[in-house]
Design goal:
By secondary structure, the protein is mostly helical. It has one domain (about 20-175). The protein is about 65% helix and about 5% strand. It is built from 8 helices and 2 strands. The protein has helices at about 20-45, 50-70, 75-80, 95-115, 120-140, 145-155, 180-205, 215-220; strands at about 20, 90. The protein has a two-stranded antiparallel ribbon with strand order 1-2. Helix 2 (about 50-70) runs antiparallel to helix 4 (about 95-115) and helix 4 (about 95-115) crosses helix 6 (about 145-155). The protein starts with 17 loop residues before the first strand and ends with a helix.
Length: about 220
């Protein structure tokens, strides 16, 4: 029973239970796509059906992770299969559990308001935004925001963080940004603003059907 209900894997060479960060990032990517599409449907078409499914799936998946075992969470199973040929990157299980408990709180509130009460409000909108940010940072940058909070609260207990960010060390040369690169970023931001000012009216015009396929369909 202990092997079924547990949190983290015992891996030789690691003093504490760990998880595979690569499959976690893949699972976060899967959930991000589901939530993002569902939120777009709610915003663009005022259709909350897919969002209710997405919230239910998200809450169920994260409950399985925390209350039963991460290895049985559907998104992590799919993530494990996707990255099965990649070398595992181990991360301490405890900070991930803390982060996912935050996710449970957010998802439970969202489920209660969106699915049970069948309502929408700035509260549900804000929670959706927070969840998207959490998932996006996890899958795109490998940054677990909940783990960051854990590290601030339990500074001495965080071990085996993604990218070894828990370890105090100097950046390697390839990780450093130069003043020239900073100027390039600022110049690029200025370029985007300039394009928006000069070409907004042109960009706002709807495109025409190059091959006239829409008119042909309408004629038939």
């Amino acid at each position: 029973m202990g092997k079924v209900i547990q949190f983290g894997e015992t891996v030789p060479g690691f003093e504490i239970p760990v998880l595979n960060e690569r499959e976690i990032r893949a699972g976060a990517g899967i959930l991000f796509v589901v939530m993002f599409v569902a939120i777009l449907m709610a915003i663009m078409k005022s259709d909350f059906t897919l969002l209710k499914y997405a919230v239910t799936i998200f809450l169920t998946d994260i409950l399985i992770r925390v209350l039963i075992n991460p290895r049985y969470a559907p998104s992590l199973i799919m993530g494990r299969w996707i990255v099965r040929n990649q070398t595992p990157e181990y991360v301490g299980a405890q900070q991930k559990k803390f982060a996912w408990i935050i996710g449970i709180v957010l998802a439970t509130v969202m489920f209660a308001l969106q699915v049970v009460v069948n309502s929408f409000s700035p509260i549900t909108g804000l929670i959706c935004l927070i969840c998207l940010v959490f998932l996006f940072f996890e899958t795109s940058f490998g940054i677990c925001i909940g783990c960051k909070v854990y590290s601030l609260i339990y500074r001495d207990k965080a071990q085996y963080c993604p990218g070894e960010v828990c370890d105090v060390k100097s950046r390697q040369e390839i990780q450093k940004t130069s003043p020239v690169q900073a100027v390039i970023i600022l110049a690029f931001v200025g370029y985007v603003v300039l394009v928006a000012v000069l070409f907004h009216e042109n960009f706002a015009q709807p495109p025409f059907d190059l091959f006239g396929l829409t008119e042909a369909q309408a004629a038939n």
